[in-house]
Amino acid sequence: MKKFFRIFMWVLIAAIFVGTFVFLYLNSREKNTVYSTVTPTTGSIERTSVLTGTIEPRDEINIKPQISGIISEVLVEPGDMVNEGDVIARIKVIPEASSLSNAQGQIDQAQISLDDAKVKYERSKALYDRKVIAREEYETAEATYHKALKSLESAKDALNIVKNGVSRYNASEANTMVRATISGLVLDVPVKVGTSVIQANTFNDGTTIATIADMNNLIFKGKVDETEVGLLQPGMEMKITIGALPDFNPTATLEYISPKGDSSTGANTFEIKAAVMPYPNVKLRSGYSANATVVLSNATNTLILPESVIEWAGDSTYVYVLTDSLPEQKFDRRKIVTGMSDGINIEVKEGVDSTVVIRSSVINDKE
């Protein structure tokens, strides 16, 4: 048994020794690496950028009341079409005590002035009829009397406006009727019946009764990185992709590039706006998320290579040109001048032509 064990150990040691020798021999042999090759092609290449943003109306108008009060009736809902001048809501006026008191005081003062003017007018008329005073003095008293009448009427009308928000001189244009100032689609109605509203003035913006926009005049509003903003120019065309409408790709024309950057998100970006072409048969909604693809630069009828075959060394670029394929592949390292890249292919300006064969990726290693 011991003799068998010794023989087995010597055989195992011999096998390990032979295996190690064979392994080292095989690794010491020179390997022949086989590469795949490509040939430069002639074509076009574009550098594009994808901008994120939203579809929005060019103008959204917030309709605000001309008088403070409480909403008594709302006549529209989001999605309704309205024309300029249509009544969209009515307001019930709740007068302030101080305003009501002032208006009533103005009536009392106007009444006193009228009573005084009336007495002077009647006295002047009697004296004028008896040829005691001149005609000019009589006419002055008459004019003062008529002015006092008008002042009383105005004071009463002012009281009616304070109490009801309606003037008898322009009842059809009463401030209690909130009207659309443009024709378009109602996007939002943030108030309900019973909501208190205040008019716009120098101290506040007032309560928004409704938001109206012309949905036939839309824009793409997005952001562009500072590294690409210098390549954009007004008038460039964009292809819009809308997430909610994947089969619809409208076009847009760049109109505006902000002169000031925004770094609130961490990166320095610039706002852009592009006019979206109208499509009567497609219903677009305000706030749709969208992407805009714009061609920043392009080159036509130029040599193109896959960017993966390029060797980068500092500011220089190189390729390996096939010089011989038998008995094994041989390549010559050649400096080239490159142009724009789309991330997959790259433009070649100098160094090679369409007749050369260039080394690409490794196919396999042969001994």
Number of helices, where a helix is a run of at least 4 consecutive DSSP H or I residues: 4
Taking the sheet with the most strands, its summary is:
6 strands, antiparallel, barrel
Structural class: alpha+beta
Shape field: elongated
Q: C-alpha Rg, in Å?
A: 44 Å
Rounded to the nearest angstrom, the distance between the terminal CA atoms is: 45 Å
Order of helices and strands: HEEEEEEHHEEEEEHEEEEEEEEE
Integer average pLDDT? 85
- β-strand amount: 35-45%
Order of strands side by side in the largest beta sheet?
A: 2-11-14-13-12-15
Please tally the β strands and state the result: 20
Low-confidence stretches: none
Amount of helix: 25-40%
Overview of the structural elements:
It is a single chain. The chain contains four helices and 20 strands. With 367 residues, it is of the alpha+beta class. Helix 2 packs antiparallel against helix 3 (135-164). The longest helix has 33 residues, at 97-129. The mean pLDDT is 85.
Question: Secondary structure elements and their pairing?
Answer:
Elements: H1 2-28, E1 32-38, E2 41-57, E3 60-63, E4 69-74, E5 81-82, E6 87-92, H2 97-129, H3 135-164, E7 177-179, E8 184-188, E9 196-197, E10 210-213, E11 218-225, H4 226-229, E12 237-242, E13 251-257, E14 269-276, E15 289-306, E16 311-313, E17 316-324, E18 330-341, E19 345-350, E20 358-366
Antiparallel strand pairs: 1-20, 2-11, 2-15, 3-10, 4-6, 4-9, 5-8, 6-7, 8-10, 11-14, 12-13, 12-15, 13-14, 15-19, 16-17, 17-18, 18-19
Helix pairs in contact: 2-3
